[in-house]
Amino acid sequence: MRRLVPALLVASFVACAQGNLEAQRERMVRQHIEQRGVRDRRVLEAMRKTPRHLFVPEGLRAMAYADQPLPIGHGQTISQPYIVAFMTELLELKPDQKALEIGTGSGYQAAVLSHLVGHLYTIEIVPELARSSAPLLKQLGYKNVTVRDGDGYKGWPEQAPFDRILLTAAPPEIPQALLEQLKPGGRLVAPVGASVFEQELVVIDKDKDGKLHRRPSLPVRFVPMVRGKE
Ligand code: SAH
C-alpha cells in the first residue's frame, strides 16, 4: 500500500497532464486553425492527431500548443501551427501521392503531412536535426516518412518526380532542381524571399504540358534556406 499510493499519484498526474495536453491541442486546432479559415477536414484531423509537444524541446512543452514558432536548436524553429495547417491545406494531398519536404527540422510538419500522403521524403541540411527527427518519427509510428540529411537545393533526384513539394525554409528564388522534380499536374508550395522581411508564400502548379503557373498567397516569415557545400 505504501508503494501503491505514490505510484497511483504519479499515474494520475501523468494522465492529467496528458489530458491537459490533448485539451490544449484541441483548443489550438479550433481557435487558431479552424476559426482562422482552414476548413479541410482531413487537415484538421491530422493537426488533431499530431502531438506537437513531442517535437519541441522538453523545456518548452508547456508552450507547444500556443500558435507560435519555437526554437528547436541549431538556430532553427518549429513552424507556427497555423502556418503548418495552412500550407498543408494548400498542398491538397491525396493518399496515393508521393511528396517531398525541404527542411525536416523537428519533424512536426513531416508528421502532419504523413497522415495525408502515400509517402513523404524529407531532407534536412543540419545533420544533428536529421539524426534526431528520423528516430523520433519512427518511434511515433510514422512509417511512410523517409528522412535524410542533405541539401534541399538539389532535391531528391533518386525519388523524383513528386506530386507535391513543400519548402519550410525560404530561398530567394525557387531552386530549379525542385521545379524539375515536380510532376506534371503537381504542386509546389514555398516561402520565397531574399530576406525575412520580404517573404511570401507562393503556390506553383505545373500543368500537364509542364508549364508553370505561379500565384502568391500569404506574407510569411521563415528561416532562410541555406546553401550546402558543393
Ligand atoms: N518543417 C520544420 C521547420 C523547420 S525550420 C518543422 O516542422 O519543424 C526549416 C528547416 O529547414 C531548418 O531545420 C533548416 O535547417 C532547414 N534547411 C535550411 N536550408 C536547408 C536546405 N538547403 N536543405 C534542407 N534543409 C534546409
Question: Which descriptors apply to this entry?
Answer:
seven-stranded mixed sheet, binds S-adenosyl-L-homocysteine, 6 helices, 230 residues, alpha/beta, two-stranded antiparallel sheet
In short:
This protein is α/β, with parallel strands linked by helices and 230 residues long.
Task: Describe it.
- The chain has 230 residues and is α/β, with parallel strands linked by helices.
- Helices cover 33% and strands 25% of the residues.
- The protein is built from six helices and nine strands, in the order H-H-E-E-H-E-H-E-H-E-E-H-E-E-E.
- The protein has helices spanning 4-34, 41-49, 81-91, 108-114, 127-139, 176-180; strands at residues 70-73, 76-78, 98-102, 119-124, 145-149, 162-167, 182-192, 199-206, 212-220.
- The strands form two sheets. The chain has a seven-stranded mixed beta sheet with strand order 5-4-3-6-7-8-9. A two-stranded antiparallel ribbon has the order 1-2.
- Strand 6, helix 6 (176-180) and strand 7 (182-192) form a beta-alpha-beta unit.
- Helix 1 (4-34) crosses helix 3.
- It is globular and about 70 Å long.
- The mean pLDDT is 93.
- The structure holds S-adenosyl-L-homocysteine.
- S-adenosyl-L-homocysteine binds at residues 76-79, 102-103, 105-106, 108-109, 123-126, 129, 151-153, 168-169, 223, 225-226, 228.
